[in-house]
C-alpha cells in the first residue's frame, strides 16, 4: 500500500505524459482532480462498489484490483476485473495497473471456468463508447464459455483471410507510425520494429 501512495505522490510531482493534466487525473480517490472529475468518480458505480457504498458479489480483491460478478451477465459467471483507482478508459490507465489486472486473469479465469463447468472464456475490454463501453471506469470482462453456446452472432460468420496486399501494408505502416508518435510523447512503449 505504501508503494501505491508513493507512486501517486510521484505522479503528481513528475507527470509521465506531456499532455496537460493526464497524469494528474489518473489516480483516485486521493488525487488533485477538478470538481467535474471528482463528481464523475462519485457517481461511478465501480467507485461506489470499491468504497463499499454499493453492493456487489466480490470474487477476488487485492491492493490494486477487484473482481466482481457482472450484474448484467452474458453468461453464468460473467465477471469484471476493475482497478481500485478510477481510470475512465484503457488509455488513461497506467501500464502497471493494466499489468496487475491482466496478471490475475489466468488465476481468476480458471477458477470461474471450474466453478461454472465452462470449457473456456472470452477476455474482453470495451474501450470507448463506440466499442460498447457503458461504465467509464476501466474494466476487463471474463466471460465463461461452453462449446456451441452461440453467444456471439459473429462466431457463425465466415472469416475472410487477410490479403497480403498494398492496403494491408499501408495499415501496418500507419499503425507503426502512430506507435512511434506515442513513444515520442514519453509513454515508454517502444517497438523493435522500424
From TrEMBL:
Give the positions the UniProt entry annotates as the active site. 139 (tele-amp-histidine intermediate)
**What's this protein's name?**
HIT domain-containing protein
Q: Which InterPro entries match?
A: HINT, Histidine_triad_CS, Histidine_triad_HIT, HIT-like, HIT-like_sf
Source organism, top-level taxon: Eukaryota
The record's annotation in PROSITE patterns points to: HIT_1, HIT_2
Q: Name one Pfam family in it.
A: HIT
Give any GO molecular function from the UniProt entry: adenylylsulfatase activity
Classification of source organism = Eukaryota, Viridiplantae, Streptophyta, Embryophyta, Tracheophyta
Q: Where does the motif Histidine triad motif lie?
A: 137-141
Q: Name one GO biological process term.
A: purine ribonucleotide metabolic process
Which residue ranges does the record assign to the HIT domain? 45-152
Amino acid at each position: 500500500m505504501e508503494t501505491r501512495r508513493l507512486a501517486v505522490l510521484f505522479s503528481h510531482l513528475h507527470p509521465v505524459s506531456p499532455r496537460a493534466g493526464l497524469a494528474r487525473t489518473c489516480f483516485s480517490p486521493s488525487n488533485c482532480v477538478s470538481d467535474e472529475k471528482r463528481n464523475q468518480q462519485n457517481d461511478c458505480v465501480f467507485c461506489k462498489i470499491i468504497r463499499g457504498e454499493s453492493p456487489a458479489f466480490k470474487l477476488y480483491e487485492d491492493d490494486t484490483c477487484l473482481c466482481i460478478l457482472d450484474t448484467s451477465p452474458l453468461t453464468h459467471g460473467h465477471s469484471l476485473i476493475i482497478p481500485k483507482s478510477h481510470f475512465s478508459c484503457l488509455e488513461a490507465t497506467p501500464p502497471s495497473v493494466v499489468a496487475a489486472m491482466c496478471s490475475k486473469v489466468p488465476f481468476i479465469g480458471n477458477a470461474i471456468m471450474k466453478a461454472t463447468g465452462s470449457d473456456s472464456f472470452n477476455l474482453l475490454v470495451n474501450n470507448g463508447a463506440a466499442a460498447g463501453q457503458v461504465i467509464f471506469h476501466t474494466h476487463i470482462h471474463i466471460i465463461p464459455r461452453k462449446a456451441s453456446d452461440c453467444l456471439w452472432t459473429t462466431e457463425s460468420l465466415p472469416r475472410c483471410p487477410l490479403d497480403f496486399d498494398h492496403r494491408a501494408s499501408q495499415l501496418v505502416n500507419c499503425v507503426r507510425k502512430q506507435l512511434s508518435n506515442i513513444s515520442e510523447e514519453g509513454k515508454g512503449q517502444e517497438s523493435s520494429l522500424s
